TrEMBL record:
Organism encoding this protein: Botrytis hyacinthi
UniProt KW keywords: Membrane, Transmembrane, Transmembrane helix
Lineage: superkingdom: Eukaryota
Protein name: Uncharacterized protein
Entry keyword Transmembrane: yes
TM regions (residue ranges): 20-50, 62-85, 91-115, 127-148
Lineage, highest ranks first: Eukaryota, Fungi, Dikarya, Ascomycota, Pezizomycotina
């Protein structure tokens, strides 16, 4: 078997699987929160709770996109804080890309359902502005965890306790057991 002939330990393999599972799970939660918010805002618009049907199509899209981007930023920040996602660019980019993959799959499934329900004209009526804003929205959705990392403050280091800029661990020397014994012997002599 190949598994036993490699020098990769089982723990490293399990760690990689667990990390992949965490990335997929967090990305799915980020996707589902954003997607449900988009469905809710679409429901509000279609049922004319917030009527802006008097606007032309490009103006409607220019109003809806900033609301969508704010929603994406809100959910990205919520997921980052709730799951305490570290400020590691690769980790956050992976979460964004996997969530973007979920979003593309959902959009393709939605388009397929609309196609089967005879809404072909509505799909092909999309103008270039709407398509461009949709692609921009997808790119911002994928990159939002990384963008928020750039906007976050760096974490404050440990308290310095009056030792200048040194942290406590570098200001207070550590003494090994053998060094401690030799120091105690010098004190007794």
């Amino acid at each position: 078997m190949i598994l036993f002939e490699t020098d990769t330990s089982v723990f490293e393999l399990l760690w990689d699987l667990a990390l992949a599972f965490f990335i997929v799970r967090i990305a799915f939660i980020y996707f589902i929160l954003t997607y449900l918010s988009s469905l809710f805002s679409s429901f509000i618009i279609v049922n004319r709770v917030i009527p802006y049907n008097h606007l032309t199509a490009p103006a409607r899209e220019l109003i809806a996109v900033p609301i969508h981007i704010l929603t994406v930023a809100l959910w990205a920040r919520t997921v980052i804080v709730y799951y305490e996602i570290p400020r590691v660019p690769g980790f956050r980019i992976a979460i964004g890309l996997v969530a973007g993959l979920f979003m593309v799959i959902a959009e393709l499934l939605g388009g397929f359902v609309l196609w089967e329900e005879e809404y072909k004209e509505w799909i092909w009526e999309t103008n270039l502005l709407g398509a461009g804003l949709g692609i921009l929205s997808l790119i911002l959705f994928e990159g939002m965890p990384w963008v928020l990392m750039l906007l976050e403050r760096s974490e404050v280091n440990e308290t310095t306790h009056g030792h200048g800029e040194k942290s406590i661990t570098s200001a207070v020397p550590t003494i090994g057991k053998t060094e401690k014994v030799s120091i105690e012997e010098k004190k007794t002599n």
